[in-house]
Amino acid sequence: MQKWFNVGKIVNTHGIRGEVRVISKTDFPNERYKTGNVLYLFLPKASEPIELTVKSHRTHKNFDLLTFEGLENINDVEKFRDGILKVPESQLGELEEDEFYFHEIIGCLVATTEGEEIGKVTEILTPGANDVWVVKGKGGKETLIPYIQDVVKKVDKKEKVILIEPMEGLLS
After folding, report:
1. The whole model's pTM is what?
2. Cβ pair 43, 37 in contact under 8 A
3. Could you state, in order of their start, the residue ranges of all structural domains in the chain?
4. What are the pLDDT digits (tens) for 61-88?
5. Closest Cα partner for 161 from 104, 99, 123, 114?
6. In what helix (H) or strand (E) does residue 78 lie, and over which residues does it extend?
7. Residue 8: in which H helix or E strand, if any?
8. Which of the two ends of the chain, N or C, has the fewest CB atoms closer than 10 A to its terminal CB?
9. What are the Cα distances from residue 150, in Å, to 1, 59, 68, 135?
């Protein structure tokens, strides 16, 4: 069975030339939204996804703006609102050794190299230079872990365990 991965949600149209506004959920927007790339749009009531080919991509504020081949008018894309853009697992491709997909990290148990359990990764924030992993511990306490070499020492995808060496003040 085909596994699908979310790359974004169409939240609105932008202008009148068929551009749509996407809230991105992908770790690699420039790769996913490359001109000529195929994305699959899942609409709330549709049984089959719509195959779309990316014609253009630019960023505007916190959104990714996309246009698709053959859809050059606002009327062509208005019905796409609330649709989820996905890619099949086969499109994920190989990653570098220290790169991970969000779905591989979310749910991982985080512990210090000393063996102290911190909690599980519930969310990944992408504020800028490096990702930040939100870890929820016992009693719902949230800890923000920057994904940088100084802190994250080992990621074991198979065992779903991440070992960190907390910087001073990180766990206080």
Report:
1. 0.57
2. no
3. 4-91, 102-164
4. 888 999 999 999 999 999 999 999 998 8
5. 104
6. none
7. strand 4-14
8. N
9. 39, 31, 41, 17
Q: How many CA atoms lie within 13 A of 61 on its CB side?
A: 5
The tokens for 105 are 């990290």
Place of tokens 């996913």: 32
Residues in the chain: 172
**DSSP character string of 116-150:** -EEEEEEEEE--SSS-EEEEE-GGG-EEEEE-STT
Angle at the Cα of 15 (from 30 to 27), degrees rounded to 5?
A: 20
The CATH class that applies to domain 4-91 reads mainly beta
Distance, CA of 126 to chain centre? 9
